[in-house]
Specification:
Shape: globular
Helix content: 25-40%
Order of helices and strands: EEEHEHEHHHEHEHEE
Largest sheet: 6 strands, mixed
Strand order of the largest sheet: 5-6-7-3-8-9
Number of helices: 7
Strand content: 25-35%
Structural class: alpha/beta
């Protein structure tokens, strides 16, 4: 029996990101060990989403470098598509596909083959969407739509999960289920990097919290050591 793959390691070296005159990140350095769970926290506009886009290969830094397992990359690299699953703020649905078809397409596109249907059924059950498998995304509540986005991550191959406010629009029970699922991912060796405004989720999942303000890292450490967080 082969062991599951280890999570990906990440190094962010003196990274800055500018958009015209606006500086979203300034000289940020961060190392994330394989299998770690890191929560990025801070007020809106602090640079969390920009950093996640760099980590997932959806954007490139203005200065500095981001290294995934020691090499530069983009989201289009085949090895990245096989290893990094992203739930982004700007994710969109296929409007004419049912919930089941939507998730099945993601699974099939990432090589699940004959296992696609089984993976989809498991993911939908995990997020309590199995009773809505035949619905269209627009027929779901906002919380169920967020759950659908999260379900797509569970049918992809992954050594790293990159999540932008995964708790968004979820009710308390769904947030608790999300925390449990993310801890299962950690136990399987998957690296987790998430931006969140929800302190309870960070406490439940992360072993390291990075606090950002105005593009700067202002605190970092175990959740118990980074306690004064304004989100």
């Amino acid at each position: 029996m082969t062991s599951p793959p280890t999570g990906l390691g990440l190094r962010i070296e003196r990274v800055s990101r500018r958009f015209g005159e606006r500086v979203a990140l300034q000289q940020l350095s961060l190392a994330i060990a394989p299998g770690a769970a890191v929560a990025l926290m801070g007020p809106n506009g602090s640079g969390k989403t920009t950093l996640l886009r760099l980590i997932s290969g959806r954007d490139v830094p203005s200065t500095g470098q981001v290294l995934l397992d020691g090499r530069t990359f983009t989201e289009d690299d085949e090895w990245v598509r096989r290893a990094v699953a992203v739930v982004a703020e700007d994710a969109a649905f296929y409007p004419d596909l049912t919930v089941f078809e939507h998730v099945w397409l993601v699974a099939a596109a990432h090589g699940a083959g004959q296992q696609s249907s089984m993976l989809v059924e498991t993911a939908l059950a995990a997020f309590r969407l199995d009773d809505h498998a035949g619905a269209l995304p627009r027929e779901l509540s906002s919380g169920q739509q967020q759950a659908l986005l999260l379900a797509t991550a569970l049918v992809r191959p992954r050594r790293m999960l990159v999540l932008d406010e995964p708790e968004r629009r979820l009710d308390p029970d769904a947030r608790d289920r999300l925390a449990g699922l993310l801890n299962d991912e950690r136990s399987a060796g998957v690296t987790i990097v998430m931006a969140t405004h929800h302190r309870e989720l960070a406490d439940a999942v992360a072993d390291h919290v990075v606090l950002l303000r105005e593009g700067h890292q202002v605190a970092a450490g175990p959740p118990s050591d980074v306690s004064d967080i304004e989100t």
